[in-house]
């Protein structure tokens, strides 16, 4: 029997081979037979109950998983690792052990080690084999992309003129510019600190001078009053002896008044000069603080320009959002602070027509450019047609593209950003046409302060209150109500 004849027999309806093919083989742990680099993304397939990790050359690790049961389904969408805990215990489920936990939402969805019965069995998290979770725990990083797909999808090589093309000169200059501005920011911060100290000392001295001046004014007022009393006594004297005594008292009062006036005049002259000097010192401190802020912003911009940039484009809100990890620890709840200072409107052709959800990732440098992959997890246009329909403002591209590096990404989706997106996340976007039981049944993340800069005592930016902004949305095609996007107010760093 030839090979083609054997294939024909296997394909006959009702054959045992056909029945076996209808049931996918169970996923087993696997490692790519090649040296691997740092993982860039993970793709979880709910349908296939597996997770695949990718480096710049393709898949490197694969393992079975257990996602959420019916009613507590793991949400499909686009996420990133935002916190890691080697020995995590659940605060929701009776202190359950969740070793090697890697959080992707602050309301409790995570990847972690756990029992795998061979089917979906979790409360919404993604359980992985215990040993596999331990092996990859030290390999991943805060901000690493995690894609949870309803079906079984893979990253494929992709190119398109809309994808970022870095500028070689800007890339080469970025590290040294960041280092130079960092040093200048340190010097400016030191100068501002010294000026602030000098202004504080001058202010204390000014207050002391003012107090001493008030005492001298009171002393002169007493001396003047005593002189008036002496004048009255002299005028009232009836005898030569009384007049002589009154005259002597008046001379002393005149001398005392003259001395008090002289001291007061001298003190006023000295105080005026010192108050002028204190005001100058205060103005110098204000100028130094302003320079510190300006240089700090420039330094932060330069530093962020060396980091991968993530861009989210939403058809629902017709907006573009940018994230870069500052690597500063968030003090009010864990994780790291992501810069959120840039958002801008985008033009989407035929905005009522679905785009789908596509994740484009720069996996490596490619000569003077970048090599990209694409992952599509939701129906709509194909990846190329989706990008063809989007026009990013040129000024935004000028801020982002010249220094784009490997691990940068562009996400295009019909969805708005989830309300779980905040300054301690990269992006959280959930597919609203898929079950979300394990996501929407969890308590939403508590309202937090949007913090950067002075609150963190690093000289960058200010402290802002979180603001909730209900965005207008395109006509819905999905059964779930449109979500609102949390947009923190933060000063621009470009």
TrEMBL record:
Residues 199-263 form a coiled coil. Pfam families: YkuD. One of its GO terms (biological process) is regulation of cell shape. Keywords: Cell shape, Cell wall biogenesis/degradation, Coiled coil, Peptidoglycan synthesis, Transferase. The keyword Transferase applies. Pathway: Cell wall biogenesis; peptidoglycan biosynthesis. The active site is at 112 (proton donor/acceptor), 125 (nucleophile). Residues 40-149 form the L,D-TPase catalytic domain. One of its GO terms (molecular function) is transferase activity. CDD domains: YkuD_like. GO terms for cellular component: extracellular region. Gene3D superfamilies: L,D-transpeptidase catalytic domain-like. The keyword Ribosomal protein does not apply. Belongs to the YkuD family. This is L,D-TPase catalytic domain-containing protein.
């Amino acid at each position: 029997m030839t090979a083609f004849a054997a294939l024909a027999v296997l394909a006959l309806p009702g054959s045992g081979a056909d029945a076996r093919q209808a049931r996918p083989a169970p996923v087993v742990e696997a490692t790519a037979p090649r040296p691997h680099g740092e993982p860039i993304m993970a793709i979880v397939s709910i349908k296939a109950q597996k997770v695949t990790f990718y480096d710049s050359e393709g898949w490197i690790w694969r393992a079975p998983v257990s996602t959420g049961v019916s009613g507590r389904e793991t949400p499909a969408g686009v996420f990133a690792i935002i916190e890691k805990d080697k020995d995590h215990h659940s605060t929701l489920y009776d202190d359950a052990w969740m070793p090697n936990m890697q959080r992707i939402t602050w309301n409790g969805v995570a990847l972690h080690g756990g029992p795998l019965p061979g089917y979906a069995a979790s409360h919404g998290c993604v359980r992985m084999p215990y040993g596999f979770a331990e092996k990859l725990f030290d390999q991943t990083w805060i901000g690493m992309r995690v894609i949870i797909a309803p079906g079984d999808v893979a990253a494929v090589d992709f190119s398109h003129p809309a994808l970022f093309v870095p500028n070689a000169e800007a890339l080469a200059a970025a590290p040294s510019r960041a280092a130079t501005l960092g040093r200048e920011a340190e010097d400016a911060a030191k100068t501002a600190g010294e000026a602030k100290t000098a202004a504080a000392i001058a202010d204390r001295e000014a207050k002391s001078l003012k107090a001493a001046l008030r005492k001298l004014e009171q002393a002169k007022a007493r001396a003047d009053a005593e002189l008036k009393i002496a004048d009255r006594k002299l005028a009232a004297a009836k005898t030569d002896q009384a007049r002589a005594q009154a005259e002597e008292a008046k001379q002393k009062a005149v001398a005392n008044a003259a001395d008090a006036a002289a001291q007061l005049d001298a003190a006023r002259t000295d105080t005026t000069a010192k108050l002028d000097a204190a005001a100058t010192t205060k103005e110098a401190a204000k100028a130094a603080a302003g320079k510190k802020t300006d240089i700090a912003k420039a330094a932060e911009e330069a530093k962020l320009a060396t980091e991968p940039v993530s861009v989210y484009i939403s058809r629902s809100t017709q907006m573009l959002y940018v994230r870069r990890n500052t690597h500063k620890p968030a003090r009010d709840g864990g994780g790291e602070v992501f810069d959120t200072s840039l958002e801008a409107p985008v033009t989407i052709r035929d905005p009522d027509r679905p785009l789908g959800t596509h994740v484009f990732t720069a996996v490596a440098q490619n000569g003077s450019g970048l090599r990209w992959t694409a992952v599509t997890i939701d129906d709509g246009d194909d990846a190329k047609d989706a990008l063809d329909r989007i026009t990013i403002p040129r000024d935004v591209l000028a801020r982002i593209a010249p220094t784009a590096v490997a691990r940068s990404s562009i996400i295009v989706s019909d969805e708005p950003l989830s309300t779980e997106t905040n300054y301690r996340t990269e992006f959280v976007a959930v597919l609203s046409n898929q079950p979300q039981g394990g996501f929407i049944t969890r308590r939403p993340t508590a309202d937090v302060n949007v913090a950067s800069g002075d609150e963190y005592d690093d000289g960058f930016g200010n402290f802002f209150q979180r603001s909730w902004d209900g965005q207008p949305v395109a006509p819905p095609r999905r059964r779930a109500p449109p979500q609102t996007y949390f947009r923190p107010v933060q000063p621009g760093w470009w």
